[in-house]
Amino acid sequence: MSYEVKMPQLGMNQDTAIILSWFKKEGDKIEKGDPLFEVETDKA
Fold first, then answer.
1. Long-range CB contacts (< 8 A, 24+ apart) of 19-22?
2. How many independent structural domains does the chain possess?
3. Structure confidence by residue, pLDDT tens digits, 9-39
4. What domain range is 26 assigned to?
């Protein structure tokens, strides 16, 4: 099963990011506001 995850806007001209690591594992309980993953963008 998949779910849509809404992320805050990353920047004015940034609309993609790479997931570096996941903080949750499959089957973990997730609450609204929990951090799920770490992302990297092409902006420094």
1. none
2. 1
3. 888 888 888 999 999 999 999 998 899 999 9
4. 1-44
